[in-house]
Design goal:
about 160 residues, alpha+beta, Arc Repressor Mutant, subunit A, Glutaredoxin, 4 strands
Length: about 160
């Protein structure tokens, strides 16, 4: 990124920040603003929020890490949500989770190296009769097996080529 591009981005960020008071009460709204725009909270945004609000950088990190809504890493293009509710658990969701982690080479909450998938575990997707269940973005997949997971992931990867 060139210095000119970086400077333009910083001026745009400052313009957005100016809509908020320069104090501690703006930390959460500014974190939300940055995450909405960037998809996550980059380190330079934490520094900018601290500088703008007069709050120590460590305090901004403290707020951001306290709330589960904030992320410090970019999310994948597709979000996989695997249900770990009671019905899914009983029907083998743990095995599906292990398989997803192996196939994607990520842990829970992680994003694949190619940026295509982020793997999340959720408590319930409300599809108990289809257990075990996962969602990828807005699509629901039920009665999962390892083989079915492989086919589903292959379709998403094929779409990217």
């Amino acid at each position: 990124m060139s210095e000119k591009t970086s400077g333009l981005q910083e001026r745009a960020r400052l313009k957005e920040f100016c809509k908020h008071p320069k104090n501690e009460s703006s930390v959460i709204p500014l974190l939300q603003l940055v995450q909405e725009r960037e998809g996550y909270i980059p380190a330079q945004a934490v520094r900018a929020i601290a500088q703008y609000t007069g709050v120590r950088e460590a305090q901004v990190y403290g707020v951001a890490t306290f709330y589960a809504q904030f992320r410090f890493q970019p999310r994948g293009k597709h979000i996989i949500r695997l249900c770990q509710g009671t019905a899914c658990h009983v029907q083998g969701a743990d095995s599906i989770l292990d398989h997803l982690k192996e196939k994607l080479a990520v842990e829970e909450g992680g994003t694949t190296e190619d940026g295509l998938f982020t793997l999340e575990v959720v408590r319930c997707l409300g599809c108990c009769s289809l257990a075990p269940v996962m969602m990828i973005d807005d699509s629901t997949y039920g009665r999962l097996t390892r083989r079915a997971v492989d086919k589903i992931l292959a379709e998403y990867r094929k779409e990217e080529k």
